[in-house]
């Protein structure tokens, strides 16, 4: 045994690039492991802090929702402000009859998008009929003007009647039953700008031909002409 120890003690070991980096007499566990543990602890603290922040944000959100929850007085004030805004918005009246070219189904496409889409086509898409439509028209100077579109003007109050700026005429005089100005089309069209939307291959309705109405004729097939034709509505209204 003593001879073996003596031989080993005199042995010269071959050094390589790998073995030369080894420190046989040094134990790194005591210095490296605590460093790893410290880094891990900091990472865990960071995760905990982020989770706490998320919980805090959620709590603030819940508190905010609680503050903005249902309040009868706030709801009443909101409705009054909404009604006031609506009463100041210009109104466009369209026929309530389903065989009119413009209805509550396609009024937005016609007046805002300036393109004709049939009522039947829109119904097939499953779109629900609205009782009132609000559109915004971009005027020169980047000014956006809101307009209300309705087909039941008898619900308007006196102040709202003053905001009626245009009406689409279908033809029969009974369309104006219950209107101010004695429901007289001649008087009405002296106060409100009147329009009639028709196909260009259809004869003009008798009453419409006798009234002071702006005619907008659309082609049944040439949809690329829609914009130029429908733009006449706004050009006339802006005069």
Describe the SSE topology.
Layout lengths: L1 H9 L18 H39 L4 H16 L3 E3 L13 H5 L7 H6 L8 E7 L3 E8 L7 H4 L2 E5 L16 H7 L1 E7 L6 H5 L3 E5 L7 H12 L2
Parallel strand pairs: 1-3, 1-4, 4-5, 5-6
Antiparallel strand pairs: 2-3
Account of the protein in words:
Pfam families: CDC73_C, CDC73_N. It comes from Soboliphyme baturini. Residues 87-239 form the Cell division control protein 73 C-terminal domain. This is CDC73_C domain-containing protein. With 239 residues, the protein is α/β, with parallel strands linked by helices. It has 2 domains: 1-69; 79-237, 3-Layer(aba) Sandwich (Rossmann fold). The protein is built from 9 helices and 6 strands, in the order αααβααββαβαβαβα. A 6-stranded mixed β-sheet has the order 2-3-1-4-5-6, sandwiched between helices. It starts with a helix and ends with a helix.
List the keywords.
alpha/beta; nucleus; Cdc73_N; single chain; RNA polymerase II complex binding; 239 residues; 6 strands; 2 domains; transcription regulation
Distance between the termini: 119 Å
Largest sheet: 6 strands, mixed
- The low-confidence parts are 52-59
Query: How many structurally independent domains?
Result: 2
CATH topology of the largest domain: Rossmann fold
Q: What portion of residues is helical?
A: 40-55%
CATH architecture of the largest domain: 3-Layer(aba) Sandwich
Pfam families: CDC73_C (PF05179), CDC73_N (PF16050)
InterPro entries: Cdc73/Parafibromin, CDC73_C, CDC73_C_sf, Cdc73_N
Keywords: Nucleus, Transcription, Transcription regulation
Domain Cell division control protein 73 C-terminal: 87-239
